[in-house]
Amino acid sequence: MNKRARTRLVILTVVALTMLVFVMLWLTGGLAFLGINTSGAYSKTVADIANDKALVGEKVKVAGKVVPGSWDRKTDPMQFTIADENDETGKGPVIAVVYNGTTPSTFGDGVTAIITGTLQSGGKLNSNEMITKCPSKYESKQGATPIGDLVGNTNMVRKTTKATGFVVAGSIKAVGQGDRFIVAEKADGSGKTAGVVYEGALPSGMTDGSEVVMTGAMEADGKFVATNVSLEQSQK
Q: Three-class SS of residue 213?
């Protein structure tokens, strides 16, 4: 084989390999480096969407933390604001979201929401597709008061305390739908129970029967208003 033929073979081989890699990346969703995913939406950061007017009218996918207090349970559709996942200062750009879909039960203040929607000229992101990434949170129940000891105890009303209980089957709801979940004295849902009011992100893996450790206070109406909810440490 002469030199020219060898060169041609090398070039053809490189082209063939390049095409093969491209096809494999396409099939495995590996086009993220182009900012495109298989749903046809451009994967962008909060800053990208907030600053790039060329994205208006485009379908985009973005992940961001729900800004505490930015959502209103009474609005229909739901409206809230997200900030960059890594923005620890709270001074970075934000995006207003108008959400028309079903709210995940894990949605709440500080949860990371992955949203796909169309960017509007006013800077709002209209969406009906959302999933949430739940944080893993565990805490020991040592020193916690069983929920049964708090229910009906007028001496503990509005006193901040650490409490523990078991999630009643079928009681977990999205924010804005009443009690976030109900806890009982025992894992089978029996014994005294209390509705839990909580607007933050539920811990990853929380499900029916999970033992939870909560910080908050009982109210006069028998509800436990929580500021933090974690899974009991033994469930790691």
A: strand
